C-alpha cells in the first residue's frame, strides 16, 4: 500500500523548465526498511527527472516483484505505471514501448527478479535493444522473503545465520556486455554524485540502458528454525495485530575519486570494495570493458561508472519500424488495413 506524502513545499524552491519543483517528482511514502539503499536510488531518480525537466506524464514506470519493485510507487507520482508478475517486467516494457515510443520507460527490478526467474526476459530485452532504462537494484539477497541468497551473491558470502554461498554469481554487467547491450553502467546507491548523471544518461539513451546499482539490504531477516523468529512467535502466541520491529539504520554513503578504490562497511559487518573508473577509461571498447570488469572482479572490486556505451546497433523501434504516433491515437482506418490487405499480410506467414 502506498502512503501519500503531504503536499507542502516552500514557495522559493528551485523550478525546472517545466515549472516544477523537485517535490513534484516524488511519489508516496516509502514502506521499505529505514536506511534501505533502494530509497537512496529513488531520491536519485527524482533528482534526475527533475534536472532533465521531464513532464511527469511522459514517464512510464514498470516493475516486477520484490523490495526493489515497490520503489516505482515512490517517485514521479504523475507518471504512468504497471507492476507486473515476478520476472516478467521486460516483456511488458517491450509491448508498451512498441505501442507508444514517445514515453520514457523506467524499469525497476532486483537481483532476484532479474537474475533468477526473470533472467530469460532480461536477456531478450537486451538482445532486442528495447528502448528503456533498466535499473537493477542489487543487494545479493531476497530481502522480501527473509534474506536467502540471490543469484548475484558472491561465492563464499555468508548469510545472517552463518551459511556460506557455494554458487558462482551471475554478474549483470558481464551478462549485458556479452549479449550486446548498448549502455552498461554500475553504481552504488550511496554515491548520488555518480548515480544521478548515470540515470540522466540512461534516460536519454536510445536503446536498452542497464544500470546495475549495488544497494545494501539493512535487514537480513530472521531464519527458519529460530524460536525467536517472527514466524515462530506468531504461531505460538495470540496477538491482535502482527507488528515487526526493524532497527533504524543510517544511510550508507560514500565519496571517492575517479580511479580510486574504496572499501565500504555494510550494516551487517561485511565489506564491499568499489572501484570508480578512471577519467581516461574508454567506454566504447566492448572487449576491453569485459576484460576490465573481469580483472577487477578477480581483485574483489566492483567497477562503477559508465562501463560501456555502444553505437551502430539498431534499437527496437528502428528494427521493427514502429510508428512515431502512439497506437491508441491512430485513427481506425490506419489501424484496420481492410480484409484484402490483411489477407496479403497473413500469406507472408504461411
Task: Please supply descriptive tags for the structure shown above.
350 residues; alpha/beta; Rossmann fold; nine-stranded mixed beta sheet; two-stranded antiparallel ribbon; 11 helices; globular
Structural overview:
The protein is of the alpha/beta class and 350 residues long. The chain has one domain: Rossmann fold (3-Layer(aba) Sandwich), CATH 3.40.50.970. It has 11 helices and 11 strands. The strands form 2 sheets. A 9-stranded mixed β-sheet has the order 2-1-3-4-8-7-11-10-9, sandwiched between helices. A two-stranded antiparallel sheet has the order 5-6. β7, α6 and β8 form a beta-alpha-beta unit.
Please outline the helices and strands.
Layout: H1 37-51, E1 59-63, E2 80-83, H2 89-99, E3 104-110, H3 111-115, H4 119-128, E4 132-138, E5 141-142, E6 148-149, H5 172-178, E7 183-188, H6 192-204, E8 208-214, H7 230-236, E9 261-265, E10 271-276, H8 286-298, E11 301-309, H9 316-320, H10 332-335, H11 339-347
Parallel strand pairs: 1-2, 1-3, 3-4, 4-8, 7-8, 10-11
Antiparallel strand pairs: 5-6, 7-11, 9-10
TL;DR of this structure?
With 350 residues, the chain is an alpha/beta fold. It has helices spanning 37-51, 89-99, 111-115, 119-128, 172-178, 192-204, 230-236, 286-298, 316-320, 332-335, 339-347, and strands at residues 59-63, 80-83, 104-110, 132-138, 141-142, 148-149, 183-188, 208-214, 261-265, 271-276, 301-309. It has one domain (22-225, 251-319): Rossmann fold.
Amino acid at each position: 500500500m502506498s502512503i501519500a506524502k503531504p503536499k507542502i513545499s516552500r514557495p522559493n524552491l528551485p523550478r525546472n523548465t517545466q515549472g516544477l519543483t523537485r517535490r513534484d517528482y516524488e511519489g508516496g511514502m516509502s514502506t521499505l526498511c529505514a536506511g534501505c539503499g533502494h530509497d537512496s536510488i529513488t531520491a536519485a531518480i527524482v533528482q534526475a527527472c527533475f534536472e532533465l525537466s521531464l513532464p511527469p506524464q511522459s514517464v512510464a514506470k514498470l516493475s516486477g516483484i520484490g523490495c526493489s519493485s515497490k520503489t516505482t510507487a515512490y517517485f514521479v507520482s504523475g507518471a504512468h505505471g504497471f507492476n507486473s508478475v515476478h520476472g516478467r517486467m521486460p516483456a511488458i516494457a517491450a509491448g508498451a514501448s512498441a505501442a507508444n515510443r514517445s514515453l520514457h520507460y523506467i524499469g525497476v527490478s532486483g537481483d532476484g527478479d532479474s537474475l533468477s526467474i526473470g533472467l530469460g526476459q532480461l536477456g531478450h530485452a537486451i538482445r532486442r535493444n528495447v528502448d528503456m532504462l533498466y535499473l537493477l537494484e542489487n543487494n545479493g539477497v531476497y530481502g522480501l522473503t527473509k534474506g536467502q541468497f540471490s543469484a548475484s551473491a558472491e561465492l563464499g558470502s555468508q548469510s545472517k545465520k552463518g551459511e556460506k554461498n557455494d554458487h558462482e554469481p551471475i554478474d549483470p554487467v558481464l551478462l549485458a556486455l556479452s549479449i550486446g547491450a548498448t549502455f552498461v553502467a554500475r553504481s552504488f546507491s550511496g554515491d548520488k554524485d555518480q548515480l544521478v548523471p548515470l540515470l540522466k544518461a540512461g534516460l536519454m539513451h536510445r536503446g536498452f540502458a542497464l544500470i546495475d546499482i549495488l544497494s545494501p539490504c539493512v535487514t537480513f531477516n530472521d531464519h527458519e528454525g529460530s524460536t525467536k523468529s517472527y514466524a515462530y512467535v506468531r504461531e505460538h502466541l495470540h496477538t491482535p495485530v502482527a507488528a515487526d520491529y526493524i532497527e533504524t539504520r543510517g544511510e550508507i554513503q560514500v565519496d571517492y575519486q575517479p580511479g580510486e578504490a574504496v572499501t565500504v562497511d555494510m550494516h551487517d559487518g561485511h565489506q564491499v570494495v568499489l572501484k570508480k573508473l578512471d577519467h581516461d577509461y574508454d567506454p566504447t571498447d566492448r572487449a576491453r570493458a569485459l576484460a576490465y570488469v573481469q580483472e577487477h572482479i578477480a581483485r574483489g572490486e566492483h567497477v562503477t561508472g559508465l562501463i560501456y556505451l555502444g553505437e551502430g546497433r539498431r534499437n527496437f523501434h528502428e528494427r521493427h519500424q514502429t510508428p512515431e504516433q502512439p497506437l491508441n491515437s491512430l485513427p481506425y482506418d490506419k489501424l484496420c488495413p481492410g480484409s484484402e490487405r490483411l489477407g496479403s499480410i497473413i500469406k507472408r506467414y504461411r
